[in-house]
Amino acid sequence: MSRHHLLLLPSPDSTSTARRGGGGGNNALPTPSRQIERLNPALSRLELAIDNRRLELRDSAQGVEPEYTLVLETIGTVAEFYNAAKRIPGLEWLGEYEIRNIQPDDDFYDSSNRDKPLNGQVMMMLSDRRAIDQLLSLWRRYGDDENMRFPSGLAKCKHLFRQLKDIRLWGVQDRLEHTGILEDWRFRLEDAADDEVIRFEAELWFRNDLNVRAQTEARLRELVGNLGGHFVSSCCIEGIRYHSALLELPIEQIHLILDDRSIELVKCDNVMLFRPLGQMTIEPLWDDTEEDYDSDSIPHDDDINEFEEVALAPDSRPVVALFDGLPVTNHRALLSRLIVDDPDDFESNYPVTNRVHGTAMASLICNGDLAVGGNVIATPLYVRPIFKPNSLLNLETIPDSVLPLDLIHRAVRRLFEGEGDEPAVAPTVKVINLSVGDPTVHFTSSISPFARLLDWLSHRYNVLFIVSAGNHAQDISVPGMTARDFRQLPDDHKARETIKAVQADTWNRKMLSPAESINSITVGAINSDSSVVPVAQMGGKYDIYLGEEMPAFYSAHGIGYGRSMKPDILVEGGRMLLNEPIASNAVLRPLNYKAIPGHKVPAPNDSGDLSYSVHIRGTSNSAALTSRACAQLWEVMVEIFNSNDKLNELNRYGAQLLKALTVHGASWGAMFERLSGYLELSDTRKLKLAMSQMLGYGKPDFDRAMYCLDNRATVLGYGALEHDEAHLFKLPIPEGLGGVDTWRRLTVTLAWMAKPCSEYIKYRDSALWFTVEGENELTSRPKSAYDWQMVRKGTLQHEVFEGENLVVLAQEDRTIHIKVSCKSDAMDIEEPVKYGLAITLEVADGTTVNLYQEVQQGIELQVQQRARTQVQV
Questions:
Q1: What stretch or stretches form a coiled coil here (predicted)?
Q2: What top-level class would CATH report for the domain 320-664?
Q3: Relative to the CA of 394, which of 81, 526, 671, 697 has its CA 20 to 30 Å away?
């Protein structure tokens, strides 16, 4: 069947917005008298804690006016309470985030289902004693008279009091627990010399006032200096309300803090969290020291025997940037492919034998899996080293000499603005590959500073980040089963029990920061690659899914912020074998080694062989292959827009269109049937949630997004919208489809970059969504379709409609009307929101109608009619 170019739709018509739909739950709340009874003890503890802290500061920090971070937890949300907070003198709004899966009790529960988990809100405010006294005064008056009239602007306080679950001060436990800092300190102390120092991060509460921020840093310098330490550096990024310091303390002071939490540094009210440094990485799922490595049973293919060197065009500019480790630039697979930009001179302390991860990722982006032999991308790859060898962890990590967010911020700004007197180094970049994750920060409810940074940078510079979801290659415990019982199961039952065990362990397999970024495409892994694994010859080892495509058990799970789709897509990440369980309980242990299965990539070795290769696996691979597809899709779009004399518009809307096209070919496909069979969930809602957690939008077929066929037409639209505006696109329908009884599918993907609003629970400045006019009445969503509410929660809406009756969606002018609507969300929209739209209509093979040709002719007719109308006007 003939291949054809993608098509461009004419500029859309302006119209009114569509209804968003959705709605909140119906929570039962305690009576006011019960709330007084419940919360008075907590308020008494709050007042006692404030009094004690005032006494401590009076003795240790004369002249310091005490400020306290107040934490309020509600059931349900108290919409826009920050407006009320601003009216209370001495209260400074710090932020809010959602919490999910709160267990109901006798006081708070869903009126329609008492067992249903609840959602809530955490609000944080910085307060002096005067503001707290005013809040407590309002509370007592409310307790005396629940019908009291609240002062002007403070009516929201009544909703707060009704829904308040808990109130307390932010304390030492919040700063140290669940951040990874305590575990990191204990690990480092095991082999540390007495004269060593340890570096770590202190994330500070962001203050709006520049002078207050300076005072905060001065206070921190004093506290660290009192302990014989150093305030190394700081970073403040106002766009994401981030303020942090890199601190250094002697070993003996770390010992002291671990033994005594009354040290003033960890009690400092200016500090939100203490975090470890030098751990941000993507742990490679291969290891030469693997105990069960068996060179006789596992085949090797260590050399790149043939590699075609294709010269790049002399004027080609990078489209994709890789932020990763330093690659082996003179490896045969990478010769003349890379532009390495190393302004921090990481290379001087980066032995060639340690240049593993960056070499692998660069090759996957440029070449794909070397075992497959795909085409080299047409543009050079820009590489910025952000990792260095970490001898303590035996990994490549972001070094502890720099704050990670400061490094990433400077690296992106250098691309598009330059640094110092140097101009922008790679302003043509449209995609940044970031296969990095923080193993100490799993996404649960609040968006991490790293993810907020990516969201802000993508919006500011109109660039698309491709981010790996993260790896979890810990042992898999199959509940309620012995090792012997598991070994005796049929192969398909082994797969079923494994996937159920992984799903049950979702809490420990969450995405790693910054994978929750809403503007980025987050990529998980499918257990797939091109290698042939002779499992029958490898006794005691399982290719657990029998070669079928399934979400890789090592791939981190979603859901995203606000119950959005995350990861966005799953891409081939390479298979990982499991050791069969031997004794006691059924515990499956993943096998790490550099032999097959996996993707074939170049690698350094001790002998300096520049044709050496290994096989690897992981979500890093998946992200790199996605970035490779982006480079190829960009070339497709350049050709289309150039032929239509619209390259300027591509430069403006290219990132949004690229984001839409990258996901446009995604579907759950056969993985849905396999997973639903394994999980055995009869409840459709629970099944869709499980599918969304593990699959996102599914596996993308990148090739489908690059060209059309006689029976398949893909069209692109784009535009920019302000609050309460909408655009209407009209997709022509071939007249011949009206009387044809045949299968047809309509796929629509909408993408944009929202400005992050870090201090608000809604987070996005803008909410965009598309509607296919008439869809609610005339198209049904089968069990295998995405949740219609979930797909509208992020910045990427992707839906598929299929069947034999889609033609009824056509309007009287024989077009399908697709409306893109825009509303402000967390805040007022400051500038029009750019979006990209991809639409594909296809019919079954063998249909006599040349769908592509007729859609193309219909678009040409629209352009002609519009031109005539403009002339008449």
A1: none
A2: alpha beta
A3: 526
pLDDT of residue 809: 57
Give the DSSP H or E segment for 796. strand 796-803
> pLDDT, tens digit, for every residue of 382-399?
999 999 998 777 889 999
pLDDT in tens, 591-627: 888 888 999 999 999 888 999 999 999 999 999 999 9
User: CA 667, CA 284: separation in Å to the nearest integer?
Assistant: 28
The residue with greater pLDDT, 354 or 814, is 354
Question: For the ranges 198-202, 333-337, 517-521, which has the lowest average pLDDT?
Answer: 333-337
Query: Which of 445, 447, 437 lies closest to 555, judged by CA?
Result: 437
Reading phi first (left if > 0) and then psi (alpha if -120 to 50, else beta), residue 420 is in left
Q: Cα-atom radius of gyration of the chain, to the nearest Å?
A: 28
The amino acid at residue 842 is E
Confidence of residue 286 (pLDDT cuts 50, 70, 90): low
Q: How far is CA 658 from CA 336, 428, 568, 622, 716, in A?
A: 26, 14, 14, 17, 10
CA contacts within 13 A on the Cβ side of 217: 17
The confidence score (pLDDT) of residue 445 equals 86
774 pLDDT tier (thresholds 50, 70, 90): low
| Predicted confidence (pLDDT) at residue 778 exceeds the cutoff of 50 | no
3-state secondary structure 327-389: CCCCCCCCCCCEEECCCCCHHHHCCHHHCCHHHHHHHHHHHCCCCCCCCCCCCCEEEEECCEE
Burial of 814 (0-12, 13-18, 19+ CB in 10 A): middle
Q: Give every CB contact of residue 48 below 8 A, 6+ residues apart in sequence.
A: none
Q: Is 754 helix (H, G, I), strand (E, B) or coil?
A: coil
Write the DSSP symbol of residue 207: -
Of 797, 802, 798, nearest in space to 779 by CA = 802
Are the C-beta atoms of 169 and 268 separated by less than 8 Å? Answer: no
Residues 857, 622: Cα–Cα separation, whole Å: 38
Mean of pLDDT values over 826-830: 93
d(CA 15, CA 719): 13
SS3 848: coil
Average pLDDT, integer, range 763-774: 91
| The CATH number, out of the four listed (1.10.287, 3.30.2010, 3.30.70, 1.10.3130), of the domain defined by the range 174-276 | 3.30.70
Q: Is the peptide bond before 479 cis (omega within 30 degrees of 0)?
A: no
Distance of CA 185 to the CA centre of its chain: 28
| Domain extents in the chain | 3-22+707-872, 31-170, 174-276, 320-664
Number of Cβ atoms within 10 Å of the Cβ of 1 = 10
